[in-house]
Design a protein that fits this description.
- This protein folds into 5 domains: 179 residues, P-loop containing nucleotide triphosphate hydrolases (Rossmann fold), CATH 3.40.50.300; 97 residues, Translation factors (Elongation Factor Tu (Ef-tu), domain 3), CATH 2.40.30; 73 residues, Elongation Factor G (Translational Gtpase), domain 3 (Alpha-Beta Plaits, 2-Layer Sandwich), CATH 3.30.70; 113 residues, Ribosomal Protein S5, domain 2 (2-Layer Sandwich); 82 residues, Alpha-Beta Plaits.
- The protein has 623 residues and is α+β, with helices and mostly antiparallel strands.
- Helix content is 28%, strand content 32%.
- Bound molecules: guanosine-5'-triphosphate (GTP) and magnesium ion.
- Guanosine-5'-triphosphate binds next to loops.
- The site of guanosine-5'-triphosphate (GTP) has 11 residues, from loops.
Length: 623
């Protein structure tokens, strides 16, 4: 059995890709034969690598004019830095695309019938034979890097058996060293059957993946799970869908068997839950089942899981590594149009929040606004639309706001004493150390270290200091955005036998941060998007000019058969409404894709505008 999960490509819905790759054993990266590796393909590729998921690349849309699988294959190599191995050649391209040459069997393969259901193998057309032989030789040379046996056969010019090619490809693909590249078109299913064969041949089954569990007992150590139905059960909830008759929780079983009616323990909450119904999902159809075994992906009705939770049969069994959830980048203020709508709006927001970990809701205490946050304009638009359609709530929507960050630009020393004497017991804490700027490449947003000697700040209070700093960093001094790229080292301090406490050290760190962080001359950082625009040549001038006016930087421009592809970097703040603007600029013929690239310093004049606007907004609401 093969479980298939289709994911959206748009980066705004990146969490779907994230959680699917977390639980899948293999992936097919679908690329366009004309567009090739787009900026969103790069994001998806990074996610595949994060979860060590082996994959096959499928170059689709071979029926389009300008289709060029060899170029796409080169892009996979250059942009995704992987060993892309082309296993087929096209017979005709664009309108004349008829079928493929399978370089393993050296046969021409055609797909007859209106849905390509009849696969016909023929001899390779004479005029393509030479090219096919060269391509096969190239493929075998690439594969020989993974097999001495194959290398020897090539050197001695002996025939290479078909099974050996498959074995070597299969090994290299499973180890995520090579990516087999297949071609075809989803129109009339040309090439799709061969893709299905490749999936069963080259992608691993659940039995072949190494999945590790962190047991509660000894932290740090991990145990390997056995994908065996008779072992103790371990499963992971990776997707939640709230339906009218209850919550549907999608689970991947990694070890053992889940039984209908069994009780299992949510390892995060420690709660015991009965799995009263198990379902196998087939797109919109569902089938009741009695059990699910290691390797299965099923849905469970009625359990109260959050995405990323691990379930096992006993308490404190262990947890699986959860998935990566990116931080939202934009925020929009929403307000119900009528008071009666408030309840339904809260209900809608609670549901979206539960289903989608990248969708956040918060109340701004100072402005009194209700803010929703997400991965991009489109992401939030989809939810706003659902609020209107499904929940019948009229909402007033503010302009999208970028989630800026604050970061230091230089180091600063701190030395702060917190002392309070009020009647009975007092408070005393004293900390000395350094605040530094972390390099851009650093993955962590905040690093806390301590080099305290001789217990001058007692061990038990060190976590209190870290906690205090973390709390203060939620709102930076520039414009109350979260502080990132910061390292704080606690070097020294002092305490008082009676008056020092966890509270005292937390408060000390918080006040210290507010007092000393401004000495690092902090600045605002803004998210920068990588954007790729495809439009007819004639629009290149206006599109580029417009990018410049959006503070964009054009990195490269490719021109191919009347189509221009512009690669640029643009601050997220300047991309709002771009879909509409591009459409009108190009008479509807331009398309674009975006992905987050990095955070970069906001130019000083713009920083000033943001700070002033923020202050005014606060004052207005407080009046
Ligand atoms: N010419 C041509 N067009 C295709 C082919 N396959 C899909 N399309 C078209 O490409 C467009 C996008 O197809 P989808 O199947 O939605 O693509 P997707 O990758 O699932 O897109 P997202 O889910 O939005 O990421 C549609 O207009 C399809 O009709 C093909 O083989 N040839
Ligand atoms: Mg799709």
């Amino acid at each position: 059995r093969i479980n298939l999960i289709d994911t959206p490509g748009h980066v705004d819905f990146t969490v779907e890709v994230e959680r699917s790759l977390r639980v899948l054993d293999g992936a097919v990266l679908v690329l366009c034969a004309v567009g090739g590796v787009q900026s969103q393909s790069v994001t998806v590729d990074r996610q595949m690598k994060r979860y060590h998921v082996p994959r096959i690349a499928f170059v689709n849309k071979m029926d389009r004019t300008g289709a060029d699988p060899i170029r796409v294959c080169e892009q996979v190599r250059d942009k995704l830095h992987c060993d892309a191995i082309l296993m087929q050649l096209p017979i005709g391209v664009g309108e004349t695309f008829e079928g493929v040459i399978d370089l393993v069997t050296m046969k021409a393969v055609y797909f007859d019938g209106s849905h390509g259901e009849t696969v016909r193998h023929e001899a390779i057309p004479a005029e393509l034979l030479e090219e096919a032989e060269a391509a096969r030789a190239h493929m075998l040379e690439q594969l020989a890097m993974y097999s001495d046996e194959l290398m020897e056969l090539l050197l001695s010019e002996d025939p290479v058996p078909e099974s050996l090619v498959h074995d070597v490809m299969s090994q290299a693909c499973r180890q995520q060293e090579a990516t087999p590249v297949l071609i075809g078109t989803a129109y009339r299913n040309k090439g799709v059957q061969l893709l299905l064969d490749a999936i069963t041949r080259y992608l691993p089954s659940p039995l072949e993946r190494n999945i590790r569990l962190r047991p509660y007992k000894d932290e740090g150590e991990e145990i390997e799970l056995k994908p065996d139905a008779s072992e103790p059960v371990v499963s992971m909830a990776f997707k939640i869908v709230d339906e009218s008759f209850g919550q549907l929780t999608y689970m991947r079983v990694y070890q053992g068997t889940l039984k209908k009616g069994g009780t299992y323990i949510n390892q995060r909450t420690g709660r015991k839950e009965r799995f009263s119904r198990l379902l196998r999902m087939h797109a919109d159809k569902r089938e009741e089942i009695d059990e699910a075994v290691a390797g299965d992906i099923v849905a469970v009705m009625g359990v109260d899981a959050a995405s990323g939770d691990t379930y096992a049969a006993t308490q404190r069994f262990g947890t699986l590594e959860s998935m990566f959830v990116p931080e939202p980048v934009i925020e929009i203020a929403v307000a119900p149009q009528s008071r009666n709508d408030g309840d339904r709006l809260s209900k809608a927001l609670a549901r979206f929040r539960k289903e989608d970990p990248t969708f956040r809701v918060r109340n701004d205490e100072e402005t009194g606004e209700l803010l929703i946050a997400g991965m991009g304009e489109l992401h939030l638009e989809v939810y706003l639309e659902r609020i209107k359609r499904e929940y019948k709530v009229g909402v007033d929507v503010g302009a999208p706001k970028v989630s800026y960050r604050e970061a230091p630009t230089q180091s600063a020393k701190f030395d702060y004493r917190h002392k309070k004497q009020t009647g009975g017991s007092g408070q005393y804490a004293h900390i000395i150390g350094t605040i530094e700027l972390l390099p851009e490449e650093e993955q962590e947003e905040f690093i806390f270290e301590e080099t305290v000697v001789g217990g001058r700040v007692p061990k038990q209070y060190i976590p209190s200091v870290e906690k205090g700093f973390r709390q203060a960093m939620i709102k930076g001094p520039v414009a109350e955005y979260p502080v990132v790229r910061t390292k704080i080292t606690l070097e020294d301090g002092s305490y008082h036998e009676v008056d020092s406490s966890d509270r005292a050290f937390q408060t000390c760190a918080q006040t210290c941060f507010r007092e000393f962080f401004p000495k690092t001359k902090p600045v605002l950082l803004e998210p920068i998007m990588k954007i790729e625009i495809e439009c007819p040549d004639t629009f290149q001038g206006p599109v580029t000019g417009d990018l410049t006016s959006r503070r964009g930087i054009v990195m490269a421009t490719d021109i191919r058969e009347g189509t221009t592809i512009i690669h640029a970097e643009v601050p997220l703040a300047e991309t709002f409404g771009y879909a509409t603007d591009l459409r009108s600029m190009t008479q509807g013929q331009g398309t674009f894709s975006m992905e987050p690239a990095c955070y970069r310093r906001v130019p000083p004049s713009i920083q000033e505008e943001i700070v002033t606007a923020r202050r005014k907004e606060k004052e207005a609401k407080q009046l």
